[in-house]
Amino acid sequence: MNKEAAIITVDHLSKAFGSNVVLTDFSMELNPGENLVILGKSGSGKSVLIKCIINLIAPDQGKIRVLGKDISELDQEEMDKLRADIGFLFQSNALYDSMTVRQNLEFPLRRHWTEEEREKNAKNAVTEALEDVGLAHTLNMMPSELSGGMRKRVALARTLILKPKVILYDEPTTGLDPITAREISNLIVKIQKKYQTASIIISHDMNCIRITSNRVIMLIEGKNYASDTLENLKQNPDPKIREFFD
Ligand SMILES: Nc1ncnc2c1ncn2[C@@H]1O[C@H](COP(=O)(O)OP(=O)(O)O)[C@@H](O)[C@H]1O
Ligand SMILES: [Mg+2]
Questions:
Q1: Do 155 and 93 form a contact (C-beta atoms < 8 A)?
Q2: How far apart are CA 188 and CA 29, in angstroms?
Q3: Is the CB of 47 under 6 A from ligand 1?
Q4: Which conformational region is residue 227 in: left (phi greater than 0), alpha (psi within -120 to 50 degrees), or beta?
Q5: The CATH number of the domain where 62 resides is what?
Q6: Full domain range(s) for residue 240
Q7: Which PROSITE patterns match (predicted)?
Q8: How far apart are CA 202 and CA 241, in angstroms?
Q9: Mean pLDDT in the chain?
Q10: Closest Cα to atom 9, ligand 1: which residue?
Q11: To test ligand 1's pocket by mutation, which of 23, 41, 47, 168 has the most ligand atoms within 8 angstroms of CB?
Q12: What is the mean pLDDT of residues 43-50?
């Protein structure tokens, strides 16, 4: 895959917080249509990496291109526009507790659609996004009335509503019971197939990785330590990789 065609390119990224060196010379590419898992220990810099990709954290060094654009060169308006193409599922879901499911889903539209577009299309967009995650019946419910797995689905629906070209999932199954975790993993694959999105999935849930990943990058000591299919990584004799599978 040449770099020009990549959905996301991270080149020689470094980031430290004071003396805490998190990422050192980390490089990767996300290819079109691919579900790429980033696997690393807790505290290894996985969330920092995706926050750099969506420009919430400024790198110390390195270049990040998203959908052909060098994000360090974008002004606020251009970055806003690009963000509409990037879905981000937070580990915490980040739903608004005082809003209904419907209001939560409509929220991103306020920023990215005109009033006219919203009046015309918001209802259909909300319905479709909720149907995609199997939760059409929760339209008028409050987040507090939903289970953890349902809240995760609503957060995913809110991500889908702008029809993103790329989706970043930060530990989508952490804190969920195994059956719900499997449902969310299957949903990630369903979304990939239906919308042909490319995704980065941060996870250390082996079942989730097995179900969702086309390729896995091991984030070890701040670097892209290995990039391969899950099956090949499982065969890799390197002790630092073995630690994750033994
Ligand atoms: N905004 C921040 N300010 C200072 N340190 C941070 C910040 N965000 C993350 N860190 C530190 O960076 C390291 C990696 O964090 P993170 O990317 O959240 O890990 P994880 O791989 O578990 O997602 C941790 O040591 C964390 O304390
Ligand atoms: Mg994290």
A1: yes
A2: 20
A3: yes
A4: beta
A5: 3.40.50.300
A6: 1-85+206-246
A7: ABC_TRANSPORTER_1, ABC_TRANSPORTER_2
A8: 16
A9: 94
A10: 48
A11: 47
A12: 95
Asked, for residue 169, whether it belongs to a domain, the answer is no
Residue 93 pLDDT greater than 90, yes or no? no
Give one word for 131, left, alpha or beta, with left for phi > 0 and alpha for psi -120 to 50: alpha
Q: Is 178 in the pocket of ligand 1 (CB under 6 A)?
A: no
Asked whether residue 30 is assigned to any structural domain, the reply reads: yes
- Sequence-distant (≥ 6) Cβ neighbours of residue 168 within 8 angstroms: 50, 53, 54, 86, 87, 88, 89, 199, 200, 202
Report which protein residue has its CA nearest ligand 1's atom 4: 17
**CB of residue 203 inside a 6 A radius of ligand 1:** no
Distance 42 CA to ligand 2 centre (A): 7
CA of 17 to the centre of ligand 1 (A): 8
Angstrom distance (rounded) from CA 152 to CA 146: 9
Q: Closest ligand to 46 CA?
A: 1
Separation of alpha carbons 115 and 112, rounded Å: 10
Q: Is residue 58 part of a domain?
A: yes
Task: Compute how many other C-beta atoms are within 10 angstroms of the C-beta atom of residue 117.
Answer: 12
Does the residue 246 lie in any domain? yes
Structure tokens, 3:
């770099």
pLDDT in tens, 109-145: 988 899 999 989 989 999 999 999 999 999 999 999 9
Q: Is the CB of 42 under 6 A from ligand 1?
A: yes
Decide if 120 contacts 144 (C-beta within 8 A).
no
Total domain count, the chain: 1
Ligand with minimal distance to 45 CA: 1
Q: Which atom of ligand 1 is nearest to the CA of 49?
A: 17
Asked whether 222 lines ligand 1 (CB < 6 A), one says no
